[in-house]
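Handout, section B. The chain below has 470 residues.
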Amino acid sequence: MNRILLNSYLSSAIFFVTLAFAGAAPHSASADLVTYQKEYSYQASEADSKISCRTISLEQVKSLLLEELGTYLERSTEIVNYEVTRDQIIALTAGIVRAQIITEKWDGQTYYIVAKIQVDPKELEKSIAGLKEERHNISELEESKKRTKELLLEVEKLKQELKTASEGKQKEEGNRKYAALTNELNAVDWFDRGNSMMVAGQLQNAITAFDKAVELNPKYARAYSVRGLAYAKADQPQKGINDCNKALELMPNNAGAYINRGFAYYKSRYYDEAIKDVNRAIEINPKSDKAYQVRGLCHLAEKAYSQAIEDFDSAIKLNPNWGYPYSNRCLAYHMSGKAGLENIKDCDKAIGINPHNNEFYVNRGIAFLNFKKYPDALADLNKAIDMDPKYVRAYFNRGIVFYHLDKFPEAINDLDLFIGSNPHSPQAYYFRALSYEKINRREEMIDDMEAAAKLGNSRAVNFLKMNKGR
C-alpha cells in the first residue's frame, strides 16, 4: 500500500498554511458578529493630492479600528491561550481582516473617511491560530505594520518640512519624495491585502494585490518574494522562481526569498536547486524552521526518508508549535515503511496544534489507512472534506478507503471527483478499475486499467498481460 499511495503522499507535502476563513464577514447575519466603526479627517497639505490624502486617511482609520479590535481580542480567553502580545494580535489581525469604507468625502482641502470592520470572533480566532502556528507569519506581518508606522511618520515629518521649504528645487524634490512615500504606503496596503488573501486561500486575488504593490513600488522586494510563493502555491512555479529571482536581486541575503524560491523549485520538482536554496537560507538564518521544512519535503520527494525525518525533527525543535513538520514527519515514517502506530501521534500533535487544518486530517487518515484501520481513516477523511469540500486529495484517499470497506459505488464517485482534476494519476485509475471489477462493470474496468497502465502503474500492466484475450 505504501507504494500505491506514494503520489498521493507527495501531493500532500505543502508547507504553507491555507485557511478556509476569508477574513472579515461584513454581510453575515450571525448574531455573534463584532463591529467597530471609526472616522478620520485629514487636512491636506500643498504636496497632497486626492490619492495621497485617501491613502493616508485609510491607513490612519485602519490603525484606529485594529487597535480597538486588538483590545477586544486581548481579553479573549482563546487568544490569551495563544501566548501572543497585543502588538502581535494587531499585526495578525491586520493580516486577516479588511476595513470596509462606509463614507468618504473630499472637498479639496480635507479628506473625511468613515470605515468599519465586522468580524466573527470565533472565526477570527481560528485564523489567528493558523497564523500563530507559523511564527514566520507573525514576523512578516509585524514588519509590514512597522513599515506602515514608519511611513506615516515620515509623511508627517516631510509635510511639516514642506510648509517652510523655499520655492524651486528644494520644494520640487520634497514633493517628489512625498509622492514616493505615499506610493510606498499604498504599496504596503496592497501587500497586506495580498497576505490577507493568501491566508484565505484566494491565491489569484493575492497575486493581483501583489501586482498592485510592485506597480506602486517596483523595488518592493518582499512583495516579489511573497508573490513568488503565491505563484508556486497556485501551481505556477516558474513564475514563482522568476519573482524570487527579482526579490533576490533587490535583497541578496534575504533568507525568506531563498526559501520561497526553494519551494517554487520544489513544486517544479527541481529538488537539487530547491535544496541549494534552502541550504543558503539556513546559512543566513540557522533558526529558520521553514527552511528545514522545505528541505524535508524535497528529501521526502526523493525518497530520502531518513534525511527528511531529520529535517522535520529540526523544524520541530526550532518551532514545536508548528503543525506541518509533525504531520509530514508522520508521512515520512509511513513512506519509509518503518512506521508503527505510535507514529500516528505526530499527526495527533499536528491536529492538536491546529484542529482547523484539513490537510492534517488527511495525513492521519492515510496513516490509519496504511494500518488497515479503515473506520478511523474514513472518519478523518470525512472531517477533511466537511472542512473543505473542494479538497480533492481527500476524495482520492477516501475512495481507496471505500474500496477496502466494499463500498464500491462510493469509491467510484470519489475517484471520479479526483480524476476530474487530476487526469494523470495512475493510482486513481487503478483503484477505480478495481472498484468497477467488483460491481461487474468490465468495460469501464478495462478502460481504467489501460489508462493506469499507460500512466505507468505496474499492477495495471501485469493485470492486462495476464488477462490478454479474455
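Note. The chain is about 70% helix and 5% strand. Compare this with the example in section A.
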